[in-house]
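Need a sequence for this fold. Nothing fancy.
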């Protein structure tokens, strides 16, 4: 899953002053819990989930993602930590928490917005007006299942009523 994020990021790498940036998955980071000198960007988009028990798939219109990022200006290495909030199947009683699957298009949009944030916060660029295509919502799939959403259980879900 991280490879899709990294290939999307490398398409934008020319915007990042020749520094090397990488995205790594880190399910331990928390909203507003970034380490000192780290920046945060929170976003979300439509994603699909698949139950590893019954193989059922479902969509969710705004799956939350949190990025924490930092530039080491001496080594010219940027690190991005990514956490995606999981959901579980509502029909299996022993369901596991499943990772969201973002389409290439939606990954690109999320990364584009992330890179704009990086340019403002790590390179002090003034971006002016942002012109970013909005995230594709995909099909609508009924009410949000708060009981089966990790972000809801943590009280930070943007889809919660
Ligand atoms: Zn299931
Ligand atoms: Zn939720």
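Here you go.
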């Amino acid at each position: 899953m991280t490879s899709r994020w990294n290939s999307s990021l490398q398409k934008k790498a020319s915007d990042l002053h020749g520094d090397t940036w990488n995205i790594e998955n880190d399910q331990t980071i928390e909203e507003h819990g970034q380490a000192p000198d780290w920046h945060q960007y929170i976003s979300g988009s439509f994603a699909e989930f698949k139950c590893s028990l019954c193989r059922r798939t479902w969509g969710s219109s705004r799956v939350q993602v949190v990025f924490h990022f930092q530039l080491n200006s001496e080594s010219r290495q940027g690190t991005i930590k990514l956490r995606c909030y999981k959901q579980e199947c509502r029909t299996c009683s022993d369901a596991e928490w499943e990772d969201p699957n973002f389409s290439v298009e939606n990954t690109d949009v999320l990364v584009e917005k992330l890179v704009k944030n990086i340019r403002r916060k790590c390179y002090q660029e003034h971006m002016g007006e942002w012109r970013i295509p909005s995230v594709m919502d995909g099909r609508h799939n009924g009410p949000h299942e708060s009981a089966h959403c990790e972000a809801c259980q943590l009280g930070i879900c943007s889809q919660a009523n």
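For context: The chain has one domain: 2-153.
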